């Protein structure tokens, strides 16, 4: 993993772009019962260099919540990635991404009643 990150140290993608590209790279594996380590690393690599699809505005109205008792599967990972992208957008809109104390954790600024698979705090 550290070699992968080092190879792409000069990559100019934002974390949000990388997450959308990762989601895109994982899409071809959705029907598989699991990923091999090579497939997983390949998806991580593709997130640095593959296409970055646009965020679907419909994600904002989806119930992206996750029951902690449900086993993790492709649908769970998809909800988590969508949630992370939306949380980054909300953190930017709320100012949490620019707050000097963001390393201690701040609410991302989600709209009231939002249901997501991730915690509502942002740490940088």
Pick out its properties:
124 residues; mainly alpha; two-stranded antiparallel sheet; 3% strand
Describe this entry's structure for a reader.
With 124 residues, the protein is mainly alpha-helical. It folds into 2 domains: 1-54, no CATH class; 80-124, no CATH class. It is built from 4 helices and 2 strands. It has a two-stranded antiparallel sheet. The two termini are 20 Å apart.
Topology readout:
Elements: H1 2-7, H2 15-26, H3 37-49, H4 74-94, E1 106-107, E2 121-122
Antiparallel strand pairs: 1-2
Helix pairs in contact: 2-3, 2-4
Question: Outline of this structure?
Answer:
Helices cover 42% and strands 3% of the residues. It is mainly alpha-helical and 124 residues long.
Assembly state of the chains shown: single chain
What is the domain tally? 2
Shape: globular
Instruction: Please tally the β strands and state the result.
Output: 2
Provide a count of the helices. Answer: 4
Helix-strand makeup class: mainly alpha
Binned, the helix content reads 40-55%
Q: Strand content of the residues, in percent?
A: under 5%
In angstroms, what is the radius of gyration? Answer: 15 Å
- Enumerate the spans where pLDDT stays under 50 for 5 or more consecutive residues: none
Largest sheet: 2 strands, antiparallel
- Order of strands in the sheet with the most strands? 1-2
Reading the helices and strands in chain order gives HHHHEE
- Overall pLDDT, averaged? 90
Gap from first CA to last CA: 20 Å
């Amino acid at each position: 993993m550290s070699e992968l990150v080092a190879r792409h140290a000069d990559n100019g993608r934002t974390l949000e772009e990388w997450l959308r590209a990762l989601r895109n790279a994982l899409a071809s594996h959705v029907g598989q019962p699991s990923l091999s380590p090579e497939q997983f690393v390949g998806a991580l690599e593709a997130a640095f260099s593959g296409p970055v699809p646009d965020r679907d505005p419909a994600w904002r109205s989806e119930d992206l919540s996750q029951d902690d008792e449900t086993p993790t599967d492709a649908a769970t990972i998809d909800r988590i990635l969508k949630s992370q992208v939306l949380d980054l957008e909300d953190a930017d809109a709320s100012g949490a991404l620019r707050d000097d104390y963001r390393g201690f954790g701040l609410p991302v600024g989600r709209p009231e009643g939002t249901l997501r698979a991730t915690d509502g705090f942002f740490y940088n």
